[in-house]
Structure formats: C-alpha cells, structure tokens
Specification:
Strand content: under 5%
Number of helices: 11
Number of strands: 0
Distance between the termini: 34 Å
C-alpha cells in the first residue's frame, strides 16, 4: 500500500499540470462555478424560478465527471508527450497498480468542485439546504467520483493510441451532459439512448445526489448508489484490460516515444 501511494503521488506531481494554485483554483473551482451560475440564470430566465433547484443540483453534480475526466486524461496524455511511457512499459510492475495509481490523488477534486459549487449556489442562487441528508450527499459524491475516475482512466487508454484527446474529452463531456439526466430526464430520451445512459457514470449517482436534497433515507437511494458503484467497477475492469491492450498496441506501432 505504501508503494502504491508513493507511486500515485509522484505520478500526480509529475503529470498533473494544474498543481500551481492559480491554475487549480481557476480551473477546478471558479471555472465550473461560473458555468453553473451562467446556465442556471439562463434556465431561470427561460423557465422561471422553480427550475433553479433541480437544475443547479444537476449542474453541480455533472462537474464531478467533467473535472475528474479532464484531470486524469491529461495524466495519460502527458505521460506519452513527455516520453516517459516507455519507462512505464519497460517496468515489471503490476499494470493494475499503475492504472489505479493514476486516479488516487485526483479523487479529492470531486469533493472540491461539489463544495465550491454548492457554496456559491447557496450564496448567489439561493439554493436551500434545509432538508439535505448530508450522509446521502457525501455517499453520492463519493460514488460518482469513483465511477467517474474509473471511466476517465478507461478513456485514458485511448489517448495512448489516439492523438486527439481533446475530441475524446469533449465527446465524453457532451454525452454526460445530455444523457445522464442533468438537463434532459432519462424518461424523455429515446429507448436506445436511455439504455446507454444506464452504463454512464453519474446517471445513477445523480438520482441519489438530488434525493439527498429532499432528505431521502439511505434505504430509498441505496439501489442508485449501488448502481453507480457497479458502473464504476465495470469501467475499472475494462480499464485494466484496456491498459494492457493499449500497451501491446503501442509497442507494436512504436507509439511510446512521442515527445513533443
């Protein structure tokens, strides 16, 4: 465990480019907060004040996969761009350990963005916390964060063999926004898209996240929390397999030395 944490720490320090405070605060805190406020005000103007509560709650939650995926994807990309991927592939370390170590220190970002988003939503948009079940809210944030990090690392495997990772990230972000119930209810989606939403991170956790603001009990939301964890576990398994497949492909095609 000690070696795992140490590996995760050095991976985080070496490949995560938002570690200076100006970058971290503007990207992880203020950027999402400004977007939440902007979209909420647009929704309030278009649909009336009653839309603010469910709308802003969904917008806060969806920034967990947004920030987590951007954080973890850049780790995969920078490993390739900095020409250190060959060192990883030449090591005899467990590929599963390497895969999961890339996620560990990014997990707190999920709680950071939710805390900032909810605080400013209360301060500027009047979000009410009177009925919140804080235990459910924390569990919802935790499960969404875990599933989002597993999915982001799974997608990171594609950045090893595919150069345009920005397109990959933007596609993922758009799918999350449209298909997870943040704005459009799942019940309003065409059946194929509704089925697809069930295997995306955030879909199940968002149900528990919103229910927490209505004071829901654990018994009422545990299926949603379990569903979110199941999705995350699925991406974790696929991610480890994909990491090994990407290694074989990268070695075969000579994609491990691409320093730019």
């Amino acid at each position: 465990m000690r070696n795992f944490v140490r590996q995760a720490y050095y991976n985080y320090r070496g490949l995560f480019t938002w570690l200076d405070w100006p970058s971290y605060i503007t990207t992880v805190v203020f950027g999402p907060v400004l977007s939440i406020i902007m979209f909420t005000l647009v929704g309030r103007f278009a649909l009336g004040p009653a839309v603010v509560r469910p709308y802003v709650i969904g917008l806060v939650a969806q920034y967990i996969p947004f920030i987590i995926s951007a954080s973890i994807l850049q780790v995969f990309v920078h490993e390739k761009q900095n020409a250190t991927l060959s060192i990883v592939y030449s090591s005899r370390g467990s590929r599963a350990v390497i895969f999961f170590s890339r996620q560990l220190f990014h997990l707190p970002n999920g709680f950071v963005i939710v805390s900032a988003g909810l605080f400013f939503s209360w301060l500027l948009l009047g979000l009410d916390f009177a009925q919140v079940n804080w235990l459910i809210l924390i569990l919802a944030v935790l499960t969404i964060t875990l599933s989002s990090s597993a999915c982001a690392a799974f997608l990171g495997n594609f950045s090893i063999v595919y150069t345009d990772w920005i397109l990959l990230y933007r596609t993922f972000a758009g799918v999350i926004l449209v298909l997870t119930g943040v704005i459009i209810p799942i019940s309003s989606l065409p059946p194929p898209l509704a089925a697809l939403s069930q295997i995306l991170p955030l879909t199940h956790g968002l149900v528990a996240f919103r229910a927490a603001f209505d004071g829901a009990a654990v018994q009422a939301v545990w299926p949603s929390l379990l569903g979110e964890l199941t999705v995350g576990l699925g991406y974790a398994v696929l991610g480890v397999i994909g990491f090994q497949v990407a290694e074989i492909y990268a070695k075969k095609k000579g994609l491990v030395e691409t320093m730019a």
